[in-house]
Amino acid sequence: MTETLFSSITQLVTPAPGPQRGAAMRELTMLKDAALLVRDGVIAWVGPRQDAPQTPHTQDLGGVAVVPGLIDPHTHAVWAGDRLADFEARVEGVPYEEMLARGGGIRSTMRATAAASVEELVNLARPRLEALLRSGATTIEVKSGYGLDFEAELRMLRAVRELQALLPATLRPTLLIHVPPTTGRAEYVQAVCTDLIPRVAREELAVAVDVFCEREAFSVEETRAIFAAARAHGLRVKLHADQFHALGGTELACHLEALSVDHLEASGEAQIAALAASDTVATVLPGVTLHLGLPAAPARLLVDAGACVALGTDLNPGSSPLFSAQFALALAVRLNGLTPAEALTASTVNAAAALGLRDRGALAAGQRADFLALHSPDWRDLTYTLGLNPVRDVFVGGQNLKENAL
Ligand code: NIG
Ligand code: FE
Questions:
Q1: Which of 188, 228, 257, 271 is most buried as measured by Cβ atoms within 10 A of its Cβ?
Q2: Domains plus CATH for the chain?
Q3: Which ligand is nearest to the CA of 79?
Q4: Contact 382, 47 (CB under 8 A)
C-alpha cells in the first residue's frame, strides 16, 4: 500500500461525483486550507488540513489551488499531413463544408493518414497528447475516422492502443465513421455494420462508435443503422451532430441513450429540449467556434434547460487545432456563456459521463486520484488565463507527471 497526504492547498475545488445537470453544474464544493489523502492511486480522504489523518508520507503543494484532472471527451489526435493550405483558403473565404464537398478538408487528411504506418501515427500523435496532458487532461478520448478504408481505421485504433502504453493519461478509443466514400456509400455503410464494427468489438479496439451526421457526411438513417450494429456488438454510441445543420441526429441519439452528442452549434429549441429530457451528455467544442468562426453551441440555454453539458477540445487539424484542455475550458466561458463553475463541471464529471466513466472527475473518496495543482492560489485562474498554462502539476493516479519527465 502506498499513501501520500497532499497538503498546503489554498482552495480544493470540485463538483460532486457523477454527472451534474442544469443548476447543479454550478454547485462546486470549495475547501480552504485543505488536504487530500491518496492511497494506491485513489482518493482516500479530502478535508480541512487540521483534520487530516496521520500518515508518514506527506507532500507540500506550496499554497496553491487544486482541482480535479480535466477530461477531454472529444479528440481526433491521431492524424497525418496538415491542413495549412485549407486554413489559408478558409481565411480567404472558402467555407469548410465546400472544401469537404470538393474532396479536400477531412478527405485530404484521410489520404495522408491512410498512407501512414501505425508507428508513424504514434510518433505524430504522442506530442499532441502530451500537450493535452500538460494542459491538465488526465483522461482523453481519441477517435479514429481518418482511415476510410478499414485497414487504415484499424491502424488508427492500434496506434491509440500503443499510445496508451506510452502515456500516463487514460486514453479512451472511439471508432468514428466520419465521411462516406464518394462511390458505393450504401455498400460502405453495410460493410461498416457487418465487418468493421464486429472486428473492432472482437479486438476490443474501441469502447464506443461515433458517426458524423451531417449533409456532407452521414444521414440520420445511415447513423441509425451504424448505431444498431454498434449496440449489437456491445459498444456505446456517440454522435457528431448539428455542426452545420440540425438533421435529426441529436433526437435519434437521445432516443437511443447515446453517451453524448457533440458540436451542437446549429442546435435549436427541439434539440435542446431533447438533450434536456435525456441522459445523453451535450458536449460543446469551443475550439471549433474560434477556428471556423461558427456560431457557438448554446451551452447557456442547454444548462438553463437542465441538460448535462460537457466540453472538449475537438483537437483535430481541420476544425480545431487546439492542444489545451484548459484553453477549451477558458474559451467555453467566453464563447458558450458557461460560468467558471459550470465550465469546471463540464470539463470534469460531465466529460467523464460523456465517456461512460463515473470513477473520476471529482475530488472525493473513492475517485481516481487525478488532480491538478495550479500556479495560483485561486482556482479561477484555470478559467481566466489565456495562452499561458495555469496548470503547474498534473497528478495521474496520485503520481506527478514530472516524475515521468513530461
Ligand atoms: O469534429 N466535423 C467533423 N469532424 C471533425 C473535424 C475533422 C476535420 O476537419 O479534420 C470535427 O470538427
Ligand atoms: Fe470531432
A1: 271
A2: 3-68+359-404 (2.30.40.10), 71-354 (3.20.20.140)
A3: 1
A4: no
